[in-house]
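Q: Please design a sequence for this.
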């Protein structure tokens, strides 16, 4: 068994984990990042990133625009039938595939960050020290663990987290397409049981990513049939699926997506990004929240180290409080909007209200987004 001492072990190299490593590596913190998959890799995600993270990404040496990210400033939302309402996006955002973005962040890590491509299978805490075990039987000791292992991981089960045993009724599908679509637009089209986001990525491909209830999906016979028979009742999606050419050989799909409340600290592990809580994807803010959580954690951690305290209790309560102050209201607003949009009567009423008073839309968007991170 291999043993080495680290200050922090980061489990999961998605946006939250990679940004934490990028932030801390500049301060000579001994980091080990454990990630189970090689880069680059496509992920099921809407691939619209709120501009609120740009200043922070720039401080980490990341410039998505220089790598082809597309500037998005307009938002379109449609009813189940395909009636649309358009609005400017208050802060705007950019379109970049996770294939490119995660690789961009990974490539920016310097040699001081140790990366282990392996799956963490257990985390134990004893006498102020963690031991992380991996599938390939590595045992790593460290003082702090960051849990940035995403929406759902086998670690959640091993750690006995409450949300993991609750049944969920959500699944999501994504693929890239060749299609004539405005560069500066992100669209959200509703259909029975879900909604589908469309926006361009750095390759010029349109990413179509949808979230749906299993109840709705099971009315059809697989992905293609679902797109044809249920989603295409929305005339916008009908036009899209009839005219777009799928670039991916096969659509990617995930299930068991949970929006349940999660613990921000679990058994002294600092949870970041989706591991701490997943915002409803229609808000297009989960990636920004994951990146923002990395900043919050890193700053609090560095402050404690700087004061030569690194008192675990102080750190935990500072992180938990800051996380709640920054994200709790956003998560609640996201849940309210999702309930509204997926309820037949309420959504019809909401669309009518928004068409009469279009300024409601930017107001609603602001409720689920933060301001520029500086
Ligand atoms: C359908 C859908 C559409 C979305 N669309 C958008 C959007 O348009 N805009 C937006 O901002 N957000 C969107 N989101 C949310 C966004 O995808 C997430 O909030 C974001 O990816 C969270 O980043 P993360 O770093 O927390 O997790 P992830 O990016 O999921 O990274 C977790 C990492 O942990 C690794 N891992 C897991 N378990 C282990 C283990 N045991 N050992 C080692 N490694 C492990 C995984 O391989 C992965 O690399 C969407 C989500 C869904 C479901």
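A: Design:
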């Amino acid at each position: 068994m291999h043993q080495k001492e680290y200050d922090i072990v980061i489990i999961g190299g998605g946006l939250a984990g990679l940004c934490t490593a990028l932030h801390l590596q500049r301060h000579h913190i001994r980091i080990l990042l454990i990630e189970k998959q090689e880069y680059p890799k496509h992920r099921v995600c809407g691939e619209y990133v709120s501009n609120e993270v740009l200043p922070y990404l720039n401080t980490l040496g990341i410039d998505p625009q220089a790598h082809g990210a597309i500037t998005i400033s307009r938002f379109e939302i449609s009813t189940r039938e395909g009636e649309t309402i358009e609005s400017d996006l208050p802060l705007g955002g950019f379109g970049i595939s996770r294939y490119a973005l995660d690789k961009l962040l990974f490539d920016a890590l310097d040699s001081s960050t140790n990366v282990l491509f392996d799956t963490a299978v257990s985390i134990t805490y004893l006498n102020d020290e963690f031991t992380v075990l991996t599938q390939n039987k590595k045992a790593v000791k460290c003082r702090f663990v960051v849990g940035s292992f995403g929406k759902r991981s086998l670690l959640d089960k091993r750690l006995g987290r409450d949300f993991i045993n609750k049944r969920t009724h959500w699944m999501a599908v994504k693929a890239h397409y060749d299609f004539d679509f405005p560069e500066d637009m992100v669209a959200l089209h509703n259909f029975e049981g879900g909604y589908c986001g469309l926006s361009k990525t750095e390759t010029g491909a349109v990413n179509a990513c949808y979230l749906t209830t299993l109840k709705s999906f099971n009315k059809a016979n697989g992905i293609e049939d679902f797109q044809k028979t249920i989603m295409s009742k929305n005339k916008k999606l009908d036009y899209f699926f009839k005219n777009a050419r799928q670039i991916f050989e096969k659509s990617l799909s995930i299930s068991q997506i949970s929006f349940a409340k999660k613990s921000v600290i679990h058994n002294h592990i600092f949870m970041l990004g989706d591991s701490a809580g997943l915002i409803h994807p229609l808000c297009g803010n989960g990636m920004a929240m994951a990146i923002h959580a990395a900043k919050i954690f890193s700053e609090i951690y560095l402050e404690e180290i700087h004061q030569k305290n690194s008192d675990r209790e102080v750190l935990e309560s500072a992180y938990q409080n800051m996380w709640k102050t920054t994200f709790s209201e956003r998560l609640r607003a996201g849940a309210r909007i999702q309930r509204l949009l997926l309820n037949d009567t309420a959504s019809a009423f909401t669309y009518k209200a928004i068409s009469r008073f279009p300024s409601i839309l930017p107001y609603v968007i602001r409720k689920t987004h933060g301001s520029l991170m500086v």
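Q: Thanks. Anything notable?
A: DSSP finds eleven helices and 17 strands in the chain. The pocket of flavin-adenine dinucleotide is lined by residues 11-17, 34-37, 44-49, 119-120, 148-150, 153-155, 172, 197, 209, 211, 257, 273-275, 281, 284-288, 290 (CB under 6 Å).
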